[in-house]
TrEMBL record:
CDD domains: ABC_HisP_GlnQ. This is ABC-type polar amino acid transport system ATPase subunit. It is found in: Cell membrane. Gene3D superfamilies: P-loop containing nucleotide triphosphate hydrolases. PROSITE patterns: ABC_TRANSPORTER_1, ABC_TRANSPORTER_2. The keyword Nucleotide-binding applies. The keyword DNA-binding does not apply. Belongs to the ABC transporter superfamily. Keywords: Amino-acid transport, ATP-binding, Cell membrane, Membrane, Nucleotide-binding, Transport. InterPro entries: AAA+_ATPase, ABC_ATPase_HisP-typ, ABC_transporter-like_ATP-bd, ABC_transporter-like_CS, MetN_ABC_transporter-like, P-loop_NTPase.
Length: 233
């Protein structure tokens, strides 16, 4: 099990400060939900973890990777880091021209160099796990939003990450469909996957997380037990 340590991250775009000395420790095997108003810096913070964004300063420790400004990140380091960190976005980002199964096979072939047979076996197992075996040969466009998001989760899991990041995973979904996605995420949490979830849905955050972190104005303003924080007057 792998944790995440973010120490003193700062980031600005021109004159706009997006992260102002933000630190967070995510315990191995726990789920942290990150909430707060739009523009608070949540997405940017999340994206720093797998280096979709580089902070201007601060240290990122994920697994055995240490990223800090001034220290070059080689293509190899980056590939290793991205392999251990799975990411799921609001907009699914599936390959529309590939079947559901091929969506899950492709990264295993490309990133892990797995044989066709092994990749197919794993893809079938993952589809079964997210309850979508019957969709294997469909195209993603023929699947509902909730189904597409579960496919995106299966695809991320195919690389056997030790950490999963979710950026607004249910925001594009109707509430009842969001529950299907929540169920899959809960199962992952029960298996000890370390997860960090950005969401603006309070109920979802409360139901999924061990630790709730509230961000506003480029800072973390509160963190702790979700039930304690949400019962605040
Ligand atoms: P949140 O996820 O909390 O809504 P974001 O991290 O997406 O917040 O954005 C924080 C702020 O940073 C916003 O004001 C946003 O417009 C700005 N921002 C994000 N990405 C960029 C970028 N690539 N260039 C300029 N400003 C950006
Ligand atoms: P989300 O709400 O899904 O995080 P955003 O609308 O915040 O999406 O951002 C989508 C993309 O646009 C991101 O890559 C972000 O970095 C970029 N972005 C956001 N705000 C700005 C901005 N003010 N200027 C330039 N790029 C931005």
């Amino acid at each position: 099990r792998v944790g995440i340590d973010l120490e003193h991250l700062s980031k600005r775009y021109g004159d706009t400060v997006v992260l102002d000395d933000v630190s967070l420790h995510v315990e191995p095997g726990t789920v942290t939900a990150l909430i707060g108003p739009s523009g608070a810096g949540k997405s940017t913070f999340l994206r720093c973890i797998n280096l979709l964004e580089r902070p201007d300063s601060g240290v990122i420790r994920v697994d055995r990777h240490v990223i800090e400004p001034g220290r070059a990140v080689t293509a190899r380091d980056l590939a290793a880091l991205r392999r251990s960190v799975g990411m799921v976005f609001q907009s699914f980002n599936l390959f529309p021209h590939l079947s559901v199964l091929e969506n899950i096979v492709f990264p295993q072939r490309k990133v892990l160099g797995r044989s066709k047979e092994e990749a197919h076996d794993r893809a079938h197992a993952l589809l079964s796990r997210v309850g979508l075996s019957d969709k294997a040969n469909e195209h993603p466009g023929r699947c509902s939003g909730g189904q597409q998001q579960r496919i995106a989760i299966a695809r991320a899991l195919a690389l056997e990450p030790s950490i999963m990041l979710f950026d607004e995973p249910t925001s594009a979904l109707d509430p009842e469909v969001g529950l299907e996605v929540l169920a899959v995420m809960r199962e992952l949490a029960d298996e000890g996957m370390t997860m960090l979830v950005v969401t603006h849905e309070m109920h979802f955050a409360r139901d999924v997380s061990d630790t709730l972190v509230v961000m506003a104005d480029s800072h973390i303003i509160e963190q702790g037990d979700p039930r304690a924080i949400m019962s605040d007057p």
